[in-house]
Amino acid sequence: MLFGLCLLVGWITTIPTMAKAPIKTLLITGQNNHNWPVSHQVLKQILESSGLFSVEVAQTPAAGGDMSVFSPDFNAYQLVVLDYNGDSWPENVQEKFESYVKNGGGVVVYHAANNAFSKWKAYNEITALGGWEGRNEQSGDWVYWKDGALVRDSNPGPGGSHGRQHSYILNKRNSDHPITRGLPDHWLHAQDELYDRMRGPGNIKDLLFTAYSDPETGGSGREEPLIFTVDYGKGRIFHDMLGHAGNTPEDSPALQCTGFQVLLLRGAEWAATGKVKQKIPADFPDEKNISYRKDYQGE
Predict the structure, then answer these.
(1) How confident is the model at residue 182, as a pLDDT?
(2) Can you tell me the distance from the alpha carbon of 224 to that of 232, in angstroms, rounded to the nearest whole number?
(3) Does residue 263 contact residue 227 with C-beta atoms inside 8 Å?
(4) What's CA 273's distance to the chain center, in Å?
(5) What 3-state DSSP class applies to 143?
(6) Contacts 24+ apart (CB under 8 A), 68-75
(7) pLDDT digits over 201-216, tens only?
(8) For 103-248, where are the alpha helices, taking DSSP H only?
(9) Helices (H), 20-143
């Protein structure tokens, strides 16, 4: 009897620990003034290659199409990734999305998704800052970093611009947040657009990274907030303005940048769970050296 019990105990202790189910993620795409056929494929690959996420794609009809067929069940997902800038969603879909976020849903706002829906009040609160699509002082203040703090500027003028694409330094503004903890204070990002003069309600919760928009590249001359979390209901919102897609996945340095990929993964995990368990990879860029993951795989 004792021998049999020992065998049973030994068998139990050798049972492998069940792997935690990947984070169920919905990636919304289908219209954009950017190259969404490239960007959504790359985002999906980055997220899924980490082993942390399973990604389903919700593709809207083309511009001018019947948007009534677009009706995702947001509550079926832990995370919604927005890679969309196009026709308005049906009113009932807007209401469901607002409710999803207010009640604690996780959201990643990626690059030009902050261009979308300039007249949708709640969406602009979910993104905090946006650009283009007719935005101006009526859309909210310009918000930028100056003398160690965020500044709000209500002067009139358009919302949203950028100079020519170039590589630039990201400057960390919060060392204690789970997304940024352990990352370098300054790191060099690959060639990308640098959004500036963004306007909106400005309800930034945690400012994570800024970058200087240099007038020599056509920029604003301001230190611009590019990566931050947003204060909206119980939602966890990670807003990342980086990541302009090129003509192909192989010709997209901003997406191939290791810094972009690692921040996307860390921000997405935090938005979905409130925690970041990923280790800082050895190939994260530093202040002088860009690092690439051209195959969109981890270390």
Answers:
(1) 98
(2) 21
(3) yes
(4) 15
(5) strand
(6) 72/26, 72/28, 74/26, 74/100, 74/105, 75/100, 75/105
(7) 999 999 999 999 999 9
(8) 121-127
(9) 36-49, 91-102, 121-127
Contacts of 288 (CB under 8 A, 6+ apart): 188
Distance CA 202, CA 258 (A): 28
Chain position carrying tokens 């979308």: 116
Q: Which pLDDT band, with edges at 50, 70 and 90, does 143 fall under?
A: very high
Instruction: Let me know the angle formed at the C-alpha of 100 by 96 and 81, rounded to the nearest 5 degrees.
Output: 100
Q: Judge contact between 226 and 172, C-beta under 8 A.
A: no
pTM for this prediction: 0.93
| Whole-angstrom distance, CA of residue 174 vs CA of residue 209 | 8
Q: Burial letters for 129-166: b for 16+ Cβ neighbours within 10 Å, e otherwise?
A: bbbbbebeeebbbbbbbeeeebeeeeeeeebbbbbebb
From the list 225, 31, 213, the residue with the least C-alpha distance to 128 is: 225
- In angstroms, the CA 210 to CA 232 distance is 21
